[in-house]
Amino acid sequence: MNADFTLDGEQVVSGNTYYIMNLATKKYIKPSAHYGVQAILGSAGHPVTIVADGDNYILKSRLGNFTTDTNPYMDNGNKFYYTLELVPGTEYQYYIKCSGGTLTGNGENALLSISTHTGDDNQKWLLMTDDRIKSEMASAGAAGLDVTPLIKDADFDVKAYNGTWNNYAYNWTNFESAGWALASSWDPQVVSDYWSLAYYQGKAAETTISQSLTNMPAGSYKLSYQGFYRYKKTGASISGSKVTEQDLAAKVTFGGTSNNLPRNTMDIGATSTAASEFMNGNNSDTIKVTTSSVGTLDVAVYKPETTESSNGTFSSGYSSWVVVDNFKLIYYGAEVSEEDIKGVAKAELGTLTQADIDKSIKLIRDRVG
To answer: Which of 122-131, 272-281, 322-331, 360-369 has the lowest mean pLDDT?
Structure first.
């Protein structure tokens, strides 16, 4: 349990797909910003395939190839060449370079840049796979390790131009077959995840979308997300319809623990209106789970069957919405008892008073929650 843990990545292998983590921020490269296809750092990450071409590499996202612009795009059809230079003394961290400079992280939800090489941690990158993320979780401590890429399409971030948006949420079971859809927009001045979201609208049927995260290490997890349920398009009252409180119990479940989605009473006439709710930081919630052994953690979104018209059948005039976005998963390490913490503290820092040790325990538990 070390808040200042050191991470190792995978050695680059041509043709393999990775989530590329920035060492300074512990965040991952993903698309957003201008047209939803510029490279930024965020929690969800995006699968990037690294392909050798002579002595160079091409970085390929699901949208296309990375460019070498000052602020790179991730959707080009042409070849742009990078090199991967091993950071001395590491296994494995890389500098990712092109003719214009070194790929540089500039903080979470900020555009990546091609900048003058300095060699600081903002320019160091780790190639992470699901298995590598899970192996590195053993080093995580009270500071937490962002493991969101283990939830695929966690923030529904991809805008495609070929009419196949929903294909990018295929990791959520039943997504398309049940009638869920993606919505996406962008603002060149806004660098964030919030303008892409998943929604289920205008349908009465019960529905669940889910993923199973397998072989998850024992320990403490915190899932955060944004979402709401809107049982009809306009009007705040359920008076005069057959909607009941049970009908309103749409929920998010993680590791067997469920939270009801909040009921949003504003007039939701378009997905952009729903997106603005998330842009404003509304409808956020968390679920905390602690496990004692390696196992499977399911994450799911559920909406019960809804009958809302006067004759008990669904009417388009009662256009219900379930909207979710921005799933984020943090791992805080294996569960450790107070006696374990005290023992380590006394052995390693024998000059601490008992009051200091007790204060440290409280700070750790407050942070993990």
So the answer is: 360-369
pLDDT in tens, 178-205: 888 887 765 555 565 546 788 887 676 7
pLDDT value of position 148: 98
Structure-token pair, residue 244: 């009941």
- Both tokens assigned to 238: 């359920």
Give the residues across from 273 on adjacent strands. none
Answer whether 330's CB lies under 8 Å from 286's CB: no
pLDDT top residue among 210 and 336 = 210
User: For residue 19, what are the β-bridge partners?
Assistant: 128
How far is it, in rounded angstroms, from Cα 215 to Cα 347?
33
Q: What gap in Å lies between CA 95 and CA 114, rounded to an integer?
A: 11
* Sign (positive or negative) of CA dihedral 216, 219, 224, 227: positive
Residue 347, burial from CB neighbour count under 10 angstroms (0-12, 13-18, 19+): exposed
For residues 286-297, one letter each, b for 16 or more C-beta atoms within 10 angstroms of the residue's C-beta and e for the rest, the string is ebbeebeeeeeb
This prediction has a pTM of 0.84
CB neighbour list of residue 163: distance below 8 Å, 6 or more residues apart: none
